[in-house]
Design a protein that fits this description.
Elements (H helix, E strand, L loop, with lengths): L4 E4 L5 H10 L4 E4 L3 H8 L10 H11 L2 E4 L7 E4 L15 H13 L5 E4 L7 H11 L6 E4 L9 H7 L2 E5 L2 H11 L7 E4 L1 H32 L3 H8 L22 H8 L5 H24 L17 E5 L14 H11 L3 E5 L13 H5 L4 E4 L11 H5 L6 E4 L6 H6 L3 E4 L3 H5 L9 H5 L12
Parallel strand pairs: 1-2, 1-4, 2-3, 4-5, 5-6, 7-8, 9-10, 9-11, 11-12, 12-13
Antiparallel strand pairs: 6-7
Helix pairs in contact: 1-3, 4-5, 8-10, 8-11, 10-11, 11-12
GO molecular function, one term: oxidoreductase activity, acting on the CH-CH group of donors, NAD or NADP as acceptor
EC number: 1.1.1.22
Keywords: NAD, Oxidoreductase
Length: about 450
């Protein structure tokens, strides 16, 4: 008889996981402490903007294999997929939701059942935190750590298709978890121990963060030596053993912007490179803000920071941290908006996918109207459909700063826009940012203190 499972935490990963299990014929109880979320799901309303997810939700609700509740019930398997945000005070993982989930399991669990932790956590969390909480009340359960590996916008493709890692301390728990995930996972399923699996999840996202930091540093170098970094990266990646990522306005999301700190938390004395990569990527919204200042204050539109309050306007295109996703968690767009406002700019933002977030989401027309600079922050495909001719009639100055090298620049220039691209040193060297700005001064022997992207 198939095992009956409970998925605790119905967010960006928990909900798709629960629905895929239910779609594969498993009896699934979805559990979340948010009453509004539970009510919406019961009504067939999908809160996550993900292709195919609303249809799957309606299908499994109709089948009776998926039920939603705020109160956990006893099940054969408990899958914990609750958030693990960064604790801004300690710089480590906030495991309060994991602790509460483990305590809830301890209240209803019975010997012989299984607990699977999917939440991203510092290495050792399953054995140091989750297991002791439950075992202190109910001994004899199996424990597994099994992280997801998904890309927003492709979750229903990648959850079944990507390799699945199972970290278990016993062969019985490993095979039991393997059989459970095999109900919908088509990718290879590999077995290891829990702590290794926890570290592997963090390593995957830390690798990407460090690589993006390298790309961002290359972008800054390219601007100083008069090179287009996008062309340079494309050429460098022709090497069969080189894979440089893409630069941008910063790193967001719950994974890449957060997970590296969980590694630093466990080994702070030997993770200097990881820490520096985080610092580099967190610095990028400042770099973009400085570009905006060069395109406004540097053009004589203001007399200094704050002088343009209520007059100089920046229109941000994109609030999501990643293109073609509605996920705006830890998005650099919000950091950029705060920095620009602190420097005296009026800021409006438009994102066609983000329904709610930390910044009001205006319409495209409201965002463009009266703007002195438009800044492409998120590489949504929909932004390529924007008519720059129509926006030319709305903006105060036709200036575009593309931080993702995403738009058709020839089309925007044909519409009368002055186009700038983050990492395009050829443009900066040609004096596009104003006489004396950019690498021209540095190449002439400017002092190190003139480097405005540092410090």
């Amino acid at each position: 008889m198939p095992e009956r499972i409970a998925v605790i935490g119905l967010g960006y990963v928990g909900l798709p996981t629960a629905l895929l299990f239910a779609g594969a014929g498993v009896d699934v109880l979805g559990v979340d402490i948010n009453p509004e979320l539970v009510a919406a799901l019961e009504a067939g309303q999908c809160p996550v903007e993900e292709p195919g997810l609303p249809e799957l939700l309606k299908e499994v609700l109709a089948s009776g294999r998926f039920r939603v509740t705020q109160r956990l019930e006893s099940r054969d398997v408990y899958i914990i997929t609750v958030p693990t945000p960064l604790d801004r005070e300690t710089g480590g993982a906030d495991l309060s939701a994991v602790r509460k989930a483990a305590e809830a399991v301890a209240e209803v669990a019975r010997p012989g059942q299984m607990v699977i932790l999917e939440s991203t956590v510092p290495p050792g969390t399953l054995n140091r935190l989750v297991r002791p909480i439950i075992e202190s009340r109910v001994p004899g359960l199996d424990y597994v750590f099994s992280p997801e590996r998904v890309l927003p916008g492709r979750i229903l493709i990648e959850l079944p298709g990507n390799p699945r890692l199972i970290g278990a301390d016993s062969p019985r728990a490993a095979e039991r978890a393997r059989a459970l995930y095999a109900t919908f996972v088509r990718g290879e399923i590999r077995i290891t121990d829990p702590t290794t699996a926890e570290l592997v999840k963090l390593m995957e996202n830390t690798y990407r963060d460090v690589n993006i930091a390298l790309a961002n540093e290359f972008a800054m170098v390219a601007e100083r030596v008069g090179v287009n970094v996008w062309e340079a990266i494309e050429l460098a990646n022709l090497h069969p053993r080189v894979n440089i990522h893409r630069p941008g306005p910063g790193v967001g999301g719950h994974c890449i912007a957060v997970d590296p700190w969980f590694v630093v938390e466990r080994a702070p004395m030997v993770t200097a490179l990881i820490r520096q990569a985080r610092t580099t990527n967190d610095r990028m919204p400042v770099v973009v803000a400085e570009r905006v200042e060069e395109l406004t204050l540097g053009r004589g539109l203001g007399t200094g920071a704050g002088a343009g309050a209520g007059a100089l306007k920046v229109g941000l295109l994109g609030l999501a941290y990643k293109g073609n996703s509605d996920d705006s968690r830890e998005s650099p767009a919000y950091v950029l908006a705060r920095i620009l406002r602190s420097r005296g700019f009026d800021v409006a933002a438009y994102d066609p996918l983000v329904r709610r977030g930390a910044l009001p989401n205006a319409t495209l027309e409201e965002t463009a109207r009266g703007a002195h600079v438009l800044v492409l922050v998120t590489d949504h495909d929909r932004f390529r459909e924007i008519d720059p001719v129509a926006l030319r009639q709305l903006v105060a100055r036709p200036v575009l700063l593309d931080t993702r090298n995403h738009l058709d620049h020839a089309r925007w220039r044909a519409a009368g826009f002055e186009v700038h691209v983050l990492g395009d040193g050829k443009g900066r060297r040609a004096g596009i940012f104003g006489e004396g700005a950019g690498p021209a001064g540095e190449l002439a022997g400017a002092a190190p203190g003139a480097d405005r992207t540092r410090g």
